[in-house]
Amino acid sequence: MNNYDTQGLAKPIHAPLNHPPRAGVVNVNSWTPAAFGADLAVWYEPADRATLFTDIAKTALAMNEGDAIAVMADKSGNGYDAKKITVSARPLLYYLLGSFRRAVNFDGVDDVLTATIPDLGTHCTVGRAIPGTGAVIATEQSLSTTFNHAIDHAGMVIVKRALTAAETAKLTAWLNEKAGVLDQYNVPYGPAGAESVNIYRASGHPKGPVIVMVHGGGWRNGDKAISNVVENKALHWLPKGFTIVSVGYTLDVGTDPIDQARAAARALAWTQAHATEWGCNPNEIVLMGHSAGGHLVALVSSSLAMRNAAGVRPWRCTVGLDTAAYNVRQIMESAHPSLYDEPWGVDPTHWDNGSPTQQLTVTPPPFLLVVSTEGGGEGDSINGGAYRDAVIARGGTASIYETPLLHGEVNDLLGVPGAYTDSVDVFLASVGL
User: Closest Cα partner for 102 from 162, 146, 45, 151?
Assistant: First the structure.
């Protein structure tokens, strides 16, 4: 039997999830071309999964790399969709190398998408997000009748006038974000070779938030760059202005999970130290982890000694994605998956030292536990509720969100539109993000 409330599936439970945002906080998303108002003529954004279609009727979304694009929908509200009827001359959806950012790839021969547009005048501004280059902005453009797309891009905007310097700066930042040219890979944060991060940079959000994501894999597998760790989260939160830092750590056999948690703490402290370099706020950080990574972020959240040793400062909130290891002793003293045996050994003292519940020596920031009700015991149903109750007993805020998604889906599908992603967004809004 679960030791937490079971008031139904796929809905938040326990009142703290719905507490109001902090006083004075406005929950807003990042700057977008919508800021140009009536002067915005065209807005194409391949990152928006609702805008690329494989058929002219716009009934089938282009979702997979290599899908041929028949229609690229205009987000401006003006209806200037770019289309191509001839199947053999359609560009393809592709992902920018390493970043999971979506772009449109033209073959340079006959691929083209054409939009029918009215006379927009002679002073138009055209901005493109060019993969590998970044923002390319052309001014004083004359546009009328048709506009052909034949240049690879990850976003494009047409404004019916010249821009101010401030507008140009905001559009440039937006286009650079879409092109991924400011992203960084394998940046060291600690002494071990595996202790590095990938940084997927966003811009425009007034609070400059950062999601620090710690992957799972049973303390022995996984990678910071694989798609189920990054892709859907990036597609959802980068456009909202959240920078994402994906954390790698040592996975070698014999590595102590407690040392891995210390590495996660170092990654968090490193992010706080460098966030301003990316235009982000070091106080507005979401610490997130899945499975074994969920255990690591929970231990960092719970242990004052671990936080102090790494130099971690307060952060906004923590999200644990379906980890069972809040009380390692309870797991090891009962039937459990074999993946626990090598990392955790046979010493009960070690189990206790690595258990977030037993190591709860400081009130964590607001904590959301996402719990799979499926998956054969992989999820939090073993002891997540007890951890939540312990946090609340210390005067903290902790909530459980139950979902029928399988253990792996809790990670992979976070960011896909739907009730699950909405629930995490509600939690982030509740803490002012």
Answer: 45
The CA distance from 424 to 392, in Å, is 19
Q: Which tokens hold the place of 4?
A: 């937490």
| CATH number of the structural domain spanning residue 323 | 3.40.50.1820
pLDDT in tens, 79-117: 999 999 999 999 999 998 777 899 999 999 999 999 999
Buried b (16+ CB within 10 A) or exposed e, 149-168: beebbbbbbbbbeebeeebb
Residues 2, 382: Cα–Cα separation, whole Å: 7
* Statement to judge: residues 229 and 128 lie in one domain: no
Look at the block and give the residue holding tokens 């890979």. 185
399 and 271, same domain (yes or no):
yes
Please, are residues 257 and 343 in contact by the beta-carbon 8 Å criterion? yes
Q: Do 127 and 208 have their domain in common?
A: no
292-302 vs 257-274: helix axis angle to the nearest 10? Answer: 70
Q: Which residue has the tokens 């289309």?
A: 83
| 128 phi/psi in degrees, rounded to 5 | -125, 145
Question: Domain check: are 249 and 126 in the same one?
Answer: no
Coil, strand or helix at 204: coil
Enumerate residues 6+ apart whose C-beta is below 8 A from 196: 186, 187, 188, 189, 224, 248
Helix H or strand E segment including 368: strand 367-372
Those residues of the chain that have pLDDT short of 70 are 1-29, 375-382
Q: Same structural domain for residues 345 and 257?
A: yes
Question: Which of 128, 151, 171 is the C-terminal boundary of a domain?
Answer: 171
**Number of CB atoms found within 10 A of residue 48's CB:** 15
